[in-house]
Input
Amino acid sequence: SGQIIFDIGLGHGPLESVVFAPDGKHVAAGSTDGFLSLVEPSSGQIIFDKYLGHGTLRSVVFAPDGKHVAAGSTDGFLSLVEPSSGQIIFDIDLGHGDLWSVVFAPDGKHVAAG
Output
């Protein structure tokens, strides 16, 4: 119908990447000012809004099981966050500049970025 169900409206920079969790219960969003946010679309509730301390988050992706969110930034950092707690699992400088794309392997055991 084209009806807007919810508007994330997180109050910081524009969103660069938005993705639904595999179960559809959450939406992760990466912003131009380095925030990774998790929102519950049914209520609009912000689960977490975490500043990763990096440039624009160009690519955000859920693991196939939904237990992790990976984000790639314009300053070459790959971050892995646990959505249930907002805990950063790792935050690695890959040393290659912009990370335009991040993807999990189908089994969720590996993540690739470039």
